[in-house]
User: Fold this.
Amino acid sequence: MTAPVERELRVETGDGHMWVFIVRPGGPGPFPVALVYMDAYGYREAIKGNVRRFAAAGYCCVMPDLFHRTGDRRTLDPARSGQEDLIAELRALVASVTPAMVADDTRDALAAVAGDPAAGGGPAVCVGYCMGARMALHVAGAMPERIAAAAGIHPGSLVTDAATSPHHDLDGVRGEIYVAFAEHDRSATAASVARFDGERRARGVAGEVERIAGARHGFALPDLPVFEPAAADHVAERTLALWRRAVPPGQAADSSG
Assistant:
């Protein structure tokens, strides 16, 4: 078996340079592009491990550093979970990134891999964790011509009464979505999850919304104290099933397509 190909690119953007982590299977490809959006703890090894898992299933996985505007490869230590100063840092970092910024970062990351013949130039898929789940939904709505399927893993609430509520991004989504909430999440109550799923159905967006029984917010990331291996495996396999329906490995368009 050919070894996977792994690299980091320093990509120039309108807001300075951004590191992008890329993993794909060995061989010539082309492989469908899959975007992975990090959580609020940043661009780190725990996320890279998940990226490698998805790449092993036949995708060219691309993870941009969404905090690049505040510094290079910013990472917070999950071992400090619960400390007040960490909570303040997390909130500040999340507030520094808007969905529109992430859409721009996504376009820059896609442009950076467009010259790689192993990266398919056709429909792409995506997945995001926590903060990144919100961003995956936004990108799917903002770039429906490119994003064929989007998964969101343990987001907070995706529907509020605010004009900026994430559920409004569903208006632009044309592909299928999969969203997995944690059962134990103060911001994503059973009522909130049901309301989001109702908004999805009302807009005719294909997909599935579920609450993972017994899981707590952050369950899919191995460096967090709430990590649940069985739940993480479940959502990873559901995400891959979603992607395979939208863009099966081996059916990627080449970069000229």
Notes: The radius of gyration is 17 Å. The chain has one domain: 5-246.
